[in-house]
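Hi Y.,

Following your request, here is the sequence exactly as I used it, all 129 residues.
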Amino acid sequence: MNSRRSFLALLSLASVALAFPAHAFEFHPYVPSVVEKAIASGEPVVVHVFAPWCLQCHAQAGILDRLKNDPVYDKIAFFRVDYDNQKDVVAKLDCPRSTLIAYKGGKEVARMSWDATQDAAVKILKAAM
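Below is the corresponding structure, written out as tokens. Let me know if you'd prefer a different format.
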């Protein structure tokens, strides 16, 4: 009987924990006015130039997905550029697809293109902080 109560209590705690997931960053669509405002605020910003057909882009997205629950990155605002449909933004950023760009203090502080390693992605995220 005691183990049944313990099990039910544990089950209850687990359902509460699942109802309130850990904070995780998410990518927002790149809207120039929103991104410019975020960068101008001086807060950390990371932009990912992404094409859905690009293998390196997917590899980078997978790495970022694995890192998103790490609370150390909670203060970074993340934005994703649609490489195929936002050619004006790509031209303004002057970069290829599969690029991560870090901003801090209102200016670009780091950039990486084509690298699909976790170390390289972490380096960009840390540059923004």
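Residues 5-22 have pLDDT under 50 and may be disordered.

Thanks again,
Q.
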